[in-house]
Amino acid sequence: MRTLSRRRSSRFAGAVLAAAALTATAVPAASAAPVTAERTPAYLNARLPVAQRVADLLGRMTLAEKVGQMTQAERGAIDSSQQQITDLALGSVLSGGGSTPADNTPAGWADMVDGYQSRALATRLHIPLLYGVDSVHGHNNLVGATIFPHNIGLGATRDPRLVREVEHITATETRATGPQWAFAPCVCVARDDRWGRTYESFGEDPKLVQQMTTAIDGFQGTSPKDLAKPDHVLATAKHFAGDGDTTYGTSTSGTYTTDQGVTITDWQHFAQVDLAPYVTAVQQHDVGSIMPSFSSVQWTDRPGSTPVKMTANKELLTDVLKRKIGFDGFLISDWEAIHQLPGDYATQVRTAVNAGVDMFMEPYSAPQFVSTLTAEVQAGRVPVSRIDDAVSRILKAKFELGLFEHPYTDRSNAGTIGSPQHRAVARQAVAESQVLLKNSGGALPLKPSQKIYVAGVNADDLGNQAGGWTVTWQGQSGNTSFPGTTILQGIQQVARNVTYSADASAPTAGADVGVVVIGETPYAEGVGDVGNGHTLNISAADRANIDKVCGAIKTCVVLDVAGRPQIVTDELGKMDAFVMSWLPGSEGAGVADVLFGKKPFTGKLSVSWPRSEAQEPINIGDRNYDPLFPYGYGLTTRR
C-alpha cells in the first residue's frame, strides 16, 4: 500500500507552494514566454520532483491554458475538427460508451489517440492530452478485448487478489491502445436492486466493496512510479457518493426511477455505508481521480435539508473528500452533470468549480465551457486560486503518468489483448463468481457422459451474457459484436451429447439433465431501472422454459444470467439446482467449469436475494430481514 494520501496531500501542496515561490522569481507568470526561448524548462526535466514540475509549468500558463486543462470533450465532437484541441488547449478527450474509431481495433484506437495527442503537443507549452474511457469490465469498447464479469459477479468471488489481477489486465489492454485513464472502478454500495446500475457495484455491504478496492491497485499499480508504465492507467473511483443508495422514485432524469435520484440519509449512515469505500480508495490505494455522482443528498438529521446535487456539494467534495479524507487527485464531473444544476450555464459552471470539481466532462460543450469559465474568473466569481488548485491536480496526474516523456501510445502490449492468458484469468473469474443457491439430490456437478438438454436464449447469446457497457453503451443481444465463448459452447466443450433449443420446443425424450438458462437482456444506467420498462420478475418465456424442461426431465438445473437477483420464488421448487451466473462476459466456459466439477462452486451472494420485487430494498442488517437467500449465501461443491 502507498503512504496515506492525507500525508501525501499536505506534502504535495507544500512542495507546490515552495516550488512556485522559486519559479515565480525565475519565470514571471505574466511573461508567458515561448518554451523554445530559454533553456529546457524545469517542468520538462523528468529528474525533478513532480511538485516542482507542476509549480514551474503552472507559473508559465495563461488563464486560457489553465481553463483548457480543466476541459474534457468527447471524441465525436472534435474528430472532424481536431484543431479544437490545439485552439482550446484541451486537457482531455474521452470516448463515451460505444464511441470508437471506425477501425475498432487496437491499432485503430492507438492511431486515433495519437492523432489527438499530436494536436495537444502543438500547443505553446506542449502539454499532453489525457484520454479517458469506460473500461468497466475490461477494455469493453474495444472489439477483441477480454470482457470480464461485471463487478457484481467479481464481488461474489470474495477474491480481492483476483480482482486486482482482472483490473491489471484491463489496464494493460486499455493503455496498449492509447487511453491512459479508466473511468473505473465503481465503488458504489448497491442498496436497492431496482437500480439499473446494480451490476456495476461489488455488492450491498460496504465492507465487501472496501475489500474490492484492490481494483485500484490493478489499474494504477502500488507505487507512484507504476503509473508511467505501459501496463497501468489512472483509475477513477465512482460515483462519489451515495449513488447506490438513492430512494426509489426520486429521480428526475427522464423516465429513470432510481438512477440519479436522491440519497435521503443521516450522516452516520452515509459515512458508514456510502462514504466508507472512498476513504479506503484514497487512504489505502491513493486513487488518482474521483467522479462525483449525478445523484443528490438530502440529510434527515438536518432540519430543512433539501436535495443538493453532488457536483454542487462543496461540503462533501472539498471539505470532506479533499480536506478531511485527504484526496489529492482530481475530480472529474460525469457526462454533462453540471447541466443538471440550477440556474443558467454560467451559474452551473461557477457553482461546480467553486464546489471543488477540477475537470469537466462537457462532451459537446467544450468551447462554451471554456469561454464561460474564463468569464467567471475574469469577473472575480471564481478565484484564480481555485483554478490553480484544479490545474495543479490535473498536471500532477499527467506528470505521474509519464506523459511529458512518452506522450504517444506504447503499443508493446497490444499483442496481449484478448490473449489466451488474459482470457484464462477471465475464465477463472467467471468460475469463482458462480453462486450455487440450490442443489437437491446432488444434481451438480454434471457428468460429461450425461445427455444434456439446454434451453433458453441466454445459453447461447454473448451479448446477453456480457450485459451493458459492451462495445456499445447499452450493450446488445447477439453473437456478432465481440469474440467469446457462450455458456452453451462451454457445455458443448465438455459434454458428448448436448441438445439445444432456445424455446424448449425440441423433444426432451432421452435427456438425463435439463439446463435452463434464464435472465436479462442488456441495459445500462437508469435505462435499466425497475419501473423504466424493466422488472425483477423473470420473463414469461423463461417461466415457460422452466415449466417445460423441469416438468419433463428428471434432473433440472437453472442458471440465471443477469445483473441482479430476479424473482424466482414460485419457480424454485420446480428445479433441482439453481445457479446465479451474473453477467460473466466473454468466457462462458467458466460456467461450464463449475457445472461439471472441474472447479468447485465457491461464490457467495454479493447482495441479498428478495422474495418479491416489493421487498426491495432489502439489505443485510435490516430489521425483520427475511430474504429468499441471505447476503453471503452460497453452497459449495468439491472439485
UniProtKB/TrEMBL annotation:
Residues 1-32 form the signal peptide. Keywords: Glycosidase, Hydrolase, Signal. Residues 435-636 form the Glycoside hydrolase family 3 C-terminal domain. Pfam families: Glyco_hydro_3, Glyco_hydro_3_C. Its EC number is 3.2.1.21. GO terms for biological process: glucan catabolic process. The keyword Metal-binding does not apply. Residues 62-396 form the Glycoside hydrolase family 3 N-terminal domain. It catalyses: Hydrolysis of terminal, non-reducing beta-D-glucosyl residues with release of beta-D-glucose. The keyword ATP-binding does not apply. It comes from the Bacteria. GO terms for molecular function: beta-glucosidase activity. Belongs to the glycosyl hydrolase 3 family. This is beta-glucosidase.
